[in-house]
Specification:
single chain, 47% helix, elongated, Rossmann fold, 2 domains, alpha/beta, 303 residues, 10-stranded mixed sheet
Length: 303
């Protein structure tokens, strides 16, 4: 299902951990691996000498380091691997390479050499997740295992929308590959519940409507899993969605969270900081995000 997997790397611990995760996926899916390192052109200015452009000593050193980074990834792969080093704006170069090389999946660390602070205000990983047309697996350096064990439990959060369920086929495909269990999770947003109650809606009507929505959403996951012969469990909890998803993932022994970039809140809200974005930032297990396709119901509802 993922014929070509791209591993962007800057040689950091986070990138190396992501590469190890990517190799596990590549071996399971029979994928060809691409390793890419991007020297940030904004950090180096060689200038012009005697009418000819020259490469600064710093950039030359950075390119050598980038070459070592992709070679380190190649050493992890048992088989052929395509390596490339380029100069540009990292997020843009990664997206361009993915499009040109026909990449099906990108696996990358959330924190590079710029550290946590830059990620929070807008990192390479964050920008790639927001703009990618292919699924992205993000891996935090805090993930405990140095190499990914076989995936045994795949968490699929849903709000019942077609957009959120667009991630389900990816979860089912991986569950088949690894003989894993799919865990469907519906989080009743405690803020929505209180807002309806505060405007005079009867509490039993609010609870009844939310229970019905949760049941319908989890039944769709159960049905899809049954059709594929995949083991499945479902859970409905109440709380703040991103926090509840991350907590449930830790407590349930989740190996991978699979979710769409957009749910009922739509693109406009996502760009301001959606549930998915917060999960990518805070989850202690890898997160596979899938882009919402045209026609999925990602209409803003004022959350």
């Amino acid at each position: 299902m993922y014929d070509d997997i791209l591993i962007p790397t800057d040689g950091s611990d986070s990138a190396e951990l992501a590469a190890r995760h990517a190799v596990v996926l590549a071996e399971a899916c029979g994928s060809h691996v691409h390793a890419l390192s991007v020297v940030d052109e904004r950090d180096y200015d060689g200038g012009v000498v005697d009418g000819e452009a020259v490469i600064s000593e710093g950039r030359a050193a950075a390119e050598r380091e980038a070459r070592r980074a992709v070679e380190s990834v190649a050493d992890l792969v048992d088989g052929g691997v395509t390596t490339d080093v380029t100069v540009g704006v990292p997020s843009e170069a990664i997206l361009a390479y993915a499009a040109e090389a026909g990449i099906d999946l990108v696996v990358m660390g959330t924190h590079g050499r710029t550290g946590v602070r830059r990620f929070i205000i807008g990192s390479v990983a964050e920008k790639v997740v927001r703009r990618a047309d292919v699924p992205i697996v993000t891996v935090r350096v805090s993930d405990a295992a140095p190499a990914w064990p076989p995936i045994e439990r795949v968490l699929v959060p849903t709000d019942g929308s077609e957009a959120s369920l667009a991630a389900l086929p990816h979860a089912l495909d991986l569950a088949e590959r690894f003989d894993a269990t799919v865990d469907g999770l519906y989080v009743v947003d405690e803020r929505t519940k209180s807002s309806f109650y505060n405007v005079g809606t009867a509490l039993e009507d609010v609870v009844g409507g939310m229970e019905a929505a949760a049941e319908e959403a989890t039944e769709r996951i159960e049905s899809a899993a049954a059709d594929r012969g995949v083991a499945v469990s479902t859970t409905v909890i109440e709380g703040l969605p991103s926090r509840a998803i991350c907590t449930h993932a830790e407590e349930s022994g989740t190996d991978l969270i699979v979710m769409s970039t957009h749910g009922r809140t739509g693109l406009a809200h996502y760009l301001l900081g959606s549930v998915t974005e917060r999960v990518v930032r805070n989850a202690t297990v890898p997160v596979l995000t899938t882009p919402t396709r045209e026609g999925d119901d990602a209409t803003p509802t004022g959350e």
